[in-house]
Each structure stands twice: as C-alpha cells, then as structure tokens.
C-alpha cells in the first residue's frame, strides 16, 4: 500500500531541510552541478530552486490530501468491486438453486398426480373386492341354508342306500350327496379367496395414501424452499444494485482524485524541469572539471545497499496506479534503517523530499566516457551527509526507508546519464 513520510528516523540523523519536488513516473533527471560552475551563478540558481521549493511547500498539504484521497478511493473502489463480485456470484448461485427447485417442484407435481391416480385405481379395486366378498358371503350362506333345508347330507345318502331299488338308483343318490358336499367346499374356498384379495387391496390403498401424503409434504417443503430462495434472490438483487451504484461513485471519486493528483504533480514537475534546464544550460556554457573516467562501465559502481534486486529497470505495471510505464531504476530489497553506500566518490548536489520518491539524494560522480553520471537514492528514511559534501566510494550516505509512494522498505536506485535514466545494472 502507499506510504507517506512522518515517522521518525530509524537512527539519529542530522536535521534536514525537507521540501516537495514532485517527479512523475519518469524521473526529472539529475541536477548536475559541475565543480567548474561559477560560484555566483550556482548560488543564483540554487536560490531560484529554493524559492520554487518554498512556493511548492504551500501546495504540499493539498497534494498529500489528494494522494491520500487517491489511495483511499482506490481501496474503497477495490472493496466495492470485490463485494459486487461476491454478490453477483451469490445471486447467480441462488438463481441456479431456484431453477433446480422449480424443476423439482414440477417433478413432485407429476409424481403426486401419478400417486393420486394409483390411489384412485386401487380404491376402485378395493370397492370391487368388497363387493366380491359380500357376494361370496351370500353364496356360502345360501349353500348352508340349502343343505339345512334338505337335511343332513349323510342321512340323505344313507336313506338313498336303504331305499334304492337298484344299483343305478344307489349310484345316482350317492352322486347327489357328493355334489351337495362339493358345493359347500367350493363356496367356502371362493369366500376365503375374496377375503384375501380384499385384505391385499386394503394394504395397497394404505400404501397409495401414504405415497400421496409423502408427495404432498415434499411439494410443500420444496415450495417453502423456493419461497426462501426467491426472497434471497430479491435481497441479493437489491444488494447488487446498491453495490453497483457504490462502485460507480467510488470509481468516479478515484478517477477525480487521480486526475487532481496528476495535474498537481505535472505542474510541480514542470517547475522543477525549468530549474533543471537552467542548470544544464549553465553546465554547457562552462567546462566541467569534475572527475572523468573512460573504459568499461561494468563494475564501475559500488553496490548502493546490501540486498537483492527486487524489481529491475524497465517497463512494468505501476504498483499504485497500475498503468504500464518505465520503472526508471533498480529496486533493492533491504530493511528500513539499513546503510546506503556511496556508489562512487563524488559530490552530493541535492537532497530534498517529494511526494513520489520521498527523501532523495543526488550524488554526482563526474564524467564517464564523455557523459555526466549522477546517481540518485530514493525513499530514504534519513541522511548521513549534507548537500555539498564530498563523499568517498563506499561511505554511508543515508538509510533505507519507505517514504513517498513506496510499497515497503527498499531502495529505488537511479543512474542518470546526462540527465536521462539508464539501467543501473550496466554500471554495477
């Protein structure tokens, strides 16, 4: 996240003048101060520069507020977008569940119709079975009454034997007796069969009624589930609408804050650029008697800090504004308060604070292969040297920090060749 100055140094340092000189995504360039520069002209330019810094100081509070507003509105927008995404996913899930529940309700309705139809059929079969039982019961009763009316069947047979005039008559009488006894057995068997079928149909009716009741309960339960899902969907729909509106407002606020921030930064950068051009013009008018070097630049500079490279020189996405632009230096990871070393012997030509790079230190190391080389240390938590001091290679010049628009403790190290940022790794 974006951090701002205000915390005390990690170790005692000398008092320092801190002023705002804002740079954009591309550094404003080194402020070359050749040793051959006439003292009066140099003083005049530095006075003009300090006057501009004093004027810029008046705008620092507004710029800080705008920068805080950018960070705040951006975070608010990100949170709103996150909540909106979650709400939309939830609404989508609820709609899917609602669709499934409605499909289940249709299935339950069809199942209920089938169960009710089966109940109606078995009810008719039960009615028919009861009628059959009644009929068989009457047949049994009629058979028994007929036997009783004609007398005991065994006596009738005996009487037939004793009164038969011939074997033919005896056979006829015997057959009649057997028929009487057979009809009684048939009637009883038919009645028992009808009773059994009646009991079976009663059981089927009970099962069909239970199934109908279960289907009705399932349909009622699913209907309540649908009603709950519908209420949830309605609530989530309103929530999504509110979140969309909130995200719209947050996005507008973030865009407006960024516009104001960048406009102010551009105005201040233009002022600093004019000062830089004046200094460069004066440098061109006079011969530079600063130290010179010719040869291979690999390994020319001492490492500025003890730490790994965390972000190289080149184009990348800005960690705060998320636009694609030039990362004009090399980032080294190191804890806040760690020593920063002079990359080469030279003169400290400027120290100041700006909102983008925090506390800055410009070290002019002279001419290399015909071009002026200035190294810049950014996001410092404190200084160990002062503007105008001559330092030697490896000397401690400051401490690692996270001032300005930093995303954590680190050193943003810039190498400028005639005021233009180049890849520091070509010199380390």
Automatic annotation (TrEMBL):
CDD domains: M23_peptidase. It comes from the Bacteria. Its cofactor is Zn(2+). Pfam families: Peptidase_M23 (PF01551). GO terms for molecular function: metal ion binding; metalloendopeptidase activity. One of its GO terms (biological process) is proteolysis. Residues 42-139, 184-218, 258-288 form a coiled coil. Gene3D superfamilies: 6.10.250.3150, Glucose Permease (Domain IIA). Residues 326-424 form the M23ase beta-sheet core domain. Residues 1-38 form the signal peptide. InterPro entries: Cell_wall_metabolism_enzyme, Dup_hybrid_motif, M23ase_b-sheet_dom. Keywords: Coiled coil, Hydrolase, Metal-binding, Metalloprotease, Protease, Signal, Zinc. PANTHER family: CELL DIVISION PROTEIN YTFB, PEPTIDASE-RELATED. This is Peptidoglycan DD-metalloendopeptidase family protein. It comes from Nocardioides humilatus.
